[in-house]
Design goal:
Elements (H helix, E strand, L loop, with lengths): L12 E5 L3 H17 L9 E4 L2 H10 L4 H9 L11 H11 L5 H15 L7 H9 L15 E8 L5 E4 L7 H8 L9 E3 L2 E5 L16 E5 L12 H10 L3 E5 L3 H7 L9 H23 L6
Parallel strand pairs: 1-2, 1-7, 2-3, 7-8
Antiparallel strand pairs: 3-4, 3-6, 5-6
């Protein structure tokens, strides 16, 4: 599937899951479990749109793993992602992302810096992502995607355009998710379908605008806004709402931000972040259900 923000589907509901590193992923798992435990039926989603960490959990959810299972694994310390980000990588990232007030120019600066830092692909990155996908289909057959509609975002290094890979894209799920998780300057851009691709969160941490065309959207964004002049989750949600879409957007509240801390790679914070996400999801369930399950229904 090519780049763009609209949906050509007649489907009704879209579940959008954003990125945020290991800690953001834990919070995301908690939110999904909290919503489910409080009665929100996430299984109503006609499509799941995942970015970065959201691509990992979106794939597993689409393949049938329950939010409760995702959550319990975070509490148990499973699904560990060892991310080592140096001060130099952070400074280079900030220099590239903040070097322009124009979103497209900022993104091109970031993709160029990423390619300069890692001119060659790293085949070993697939070995990092593969175990995180667990029950989702990850073998070499491009047709083995989950039955539930799933779209995985990644950014083209040369053009800066976002692509939403799906079951019709003739790439494996493992390739798509690896590309969506390739953090600029930390991981090498991933070769997918003859192009080098990066983390879909470079352009937007959740890419909520890709749910355009659906009647109801539930978006869970561990990081509300990308570094630089890019459109944040609140703005994208507002634009969809202005176009007639009913949107429920969850971003970390004060308690969740405190539990998550500033270092979203800190493995020790995952259980606390997951619990905070569960509490927030539980508290938000009634408001989410009003949009997600009840709009237009008798």
């Amino acid at each position: 599937m090519g780049s763009g923000s609209g949906s050509d589907s007649d489907s009704d509901t879209a579940l959008v899951l954003g990125g945020g590193g290991p800690v953001g992923l834990a919070w995301l798992a908690g939110v999904l479990a909290g919503l489910t435990d409080a009665g929100v039926d996430l299984g109503r989603a006609d499509v799941v749109i995942g970015t970065s960490a959201g691509a990992i959990y979106g794939s597993r959810f689409a393949a049938g793993e329950t939010p409760g299972e995702l959550y319990e694994r975070q509490l148990a310390g499973a699904d560990r992602i060892a991310m080592k980000v140096t001060a130099t990588q952070t400074l280079r990232f900030l220099w590239a992302a903040l070097g322009s007030r124009d979103p497209d120019h900022s993104l091109r600066r970031l993709t160029r810096a990423a390619l300069a830092a890692h001119p060659d692909p790293d085949p070993g990155f697939f070995d990092v992502i593969r175990p995180l996908l667990r029950g989702a289909h990850v073998d070499g057959d491009p047709g083995n995607w989950p039955e539930r509609a799933l779209r995985i975002t990644a950014v083209d290094v040369l053009t800066g355009e976002v692509t939403a890979f799906d079951a019709d894209s003739k790439v494996t799920l493992l390739e798509a998710v690896a590309a969506s998780c390739a953090v600029p300057l930390v991981s090498a851009p991933v070769a997918v379908a003859g192009r080098r691709r990066l983390d879909g969160g470079c352009r937007s941490t959740a890419n909520i605008d890709l749910a355009g065309g659906y009647d109801r959207v539930l978006a869970v964004a561990p990081v509300p806004k990308a570094v630089g002049p890019h459109s944040g989750a609140q703005r994208q949600a507002a634009e969809l709402t202005a176009g007639g879409t009913a949107v429920a957007l969850l971003t970390p509240d004060t308690a969740s931000r405190r539990a998550m801390g500033r270092d979203l790679t800190a493995d020790a914070r995952r259980p606390a972040a997951a619990r905070a996400g569960h509490a927030q999801g539980t508290a938000a369930a009634a408001a989410v259900a009003e949009i997600w399950q009840n709009r237009g229904e008798a």
